[in-house]
Structure prediction request, 364 residues.
Amino acid sequence: MAIGLASWFGKRERERPFEAFQIEVTSRCNLRCVMCPVTVLADRWPSVDLSWESFQRIAGAFDKTQWVYLQGWGEPLLHRRLFDMIALAKRAGCRVGFTTNGTRLTRSANERLLEAGLDVLAVSIAGANAGTHEAIRAGSDFHKLLDNLHRFLALRASRKSATPRLELLFLMTKTNLAELPDVVKLAAELGADELVATNLDYAITPSLDEMKAYSLSPQARAAREIVDQAKHAARQAGLAFRPYSPQPREVAVCDLNPLKILFISADGWVSPCVYLGVTGQQEIPRVFDGKAASIPLVRFGNVNDQSLVEIWEAPAYRAFRRQFSERLLGVVKMAVGGVSRSAASAPLPPAPEACRTCPKLYGL
Prediction:
């Protein structure tokens, strides 16, 4: 049986070499979360829906990816053809998920998500009480959000279905981090399948950089202690809990793995990730370690002009990925040689310049 499973996974890897396509179906949102570019860049933020024709062009490569994740900077449930998109990706044999602010999880929407065979529904939550949540996710109603989640889970239970899995996403900031253990208890009481605690990994302004919960200082302990308390609470509650590190550590390849994942913006541009393809912008404003930077967009073609495979195989895109391949190879060589990353004297080969001031490169 073990050999059979190994053979199956190996075959699937060959047939579907991509881990995921992240597709921004819309750049529009009905909330004004304080840390989001939709809010911070509102004076120059475009309202764009991915056209059905563009989506169909992308779908021509669905047989090469394991996952289709239908989310970027906007609220996916605002797109009138979201359910058609889910159905098309499922017919292509992909697993499908998206992240939502939960405001539009009506009974009708819940029924359609269950019928479409959605695999993962991730819902953002920013606190254990209304005051904290609504201060960060401006325009959201905390109690209505909880009602929507209860209704979704009740409907899923009535259908005797294990999917879509409900993941709650908690963005850790200085203003809400102390509530993380209570959010763990709330998630367990709701019956969520998993809680993921993420970092504020895109700070557009100095004030947002100050808002982050993690620290580049190795002496910072407060965040680690609260995360440890939350882990203990999750073990007691029997809740799957996945917190991101509150302390940086340079990684060879970030968890948005540009070697196997790509991002397509609502206007059709292909980038390595959502942080390098901020919709409708000419440059990407960013604050990292207290210093302001402006990063040129990193994009390699538009699906309305070329096929996704042609864009992926373009020389510039291959050169970008090669830098990460070399970093990964360096780590593998150290592991094979029995040399720990911390003990190695030689640094990793440099990452692409646009990634060097991104928290994701440091495991955050």
Summary: The longest strand covers residues 165-172. Residues 1-9 have pLDDT under 50 and may be disordered. The chain is about 35% helix and 15% strand.
